[in-house]
Amino acid sequence: MTAEVRRYHTIVKDVVISGRLKFGIIQPIQETDQIPIQRRFFSGGYDSNRGYRLDYLGPRSPSGDPLGGDTVVEGNVQLRVPLYKKFRAVGFFDFGNVYFKASDIDLGRLKYAVGAASATSPPSAPWAFISPSHQPHQPRTDTLRVHFTIGRLFRRCH
Questions:
Q1: Which CATH number fits the domain 2-146, given the four candidates 2.40.110.10, 3.90.1150.10, 2.60.40.420, 2.40.160.50?
Q2: Residue 147's closest CA among 119, 126, 116?
Q3: In this predicted model, what pLDDT tens digit does every residue of 26-74 receive, in sequence order?
Q4: pTM
Q5: Alpha-carbon gap, residue 124 to 37, rounded angstroms
Q6: Contacts of residue 69, Cβ cutoff 8 Å, sequence gap at least 6
Q7: Taking Cα atoms as reference points, which of 27, 28, 21, 19 lies closest to residue 4?
Q8: Of 130, 137, 133, whose CA–CA distance to 114 is shortest?
Q9: How far is the CA of 70 from the CAs of 59, 98, 113, in angstroms?
Q10: Proportion of the chain above pLDDT 90, given as a percent
């Protein structure tokens, strides 16, 4: 089961704040003890927590490979401000984590990232910075993440 809520609010003309909150849980059924890795949740990267590498959040093997989990919590808040014609500046705050089992959920272990992006009618180029108080124990080179995407993280549904 996955539930996701998105909200868009125009503060003043062309200044939009948007938010997204996602919660997902998967449980084994019948004789299955564990969810297969290809069915587990993964998080991190340009479409979830932009301050982290693709699938970086959550449980990892001793060699550093993502293991995924049975539960995911993700969220984003972003402010989009017009600068010139179709060029927009975007500030964002992302949070989330993946938990191996639902019983492992601990909102105190959420990982955060803040950053800025340029946005036009596609493409966009966000830059994300990992909040220093929540850095993984990785080399200093892991504190900046740059993603180049075509399209937007938040799409308005019609």
A1: 2.40.160.50
A2: 126
A3: 988 787 788 888 889 999 887 788 888 888 888 989 988 899 999 999 9
A4: 0.76
A5: 31
A6: 40, 41, 58, 59, 98, 99, 100, 101, 104
A7: 21
A8: 130
A9: 10, 8, 23
A10: 32
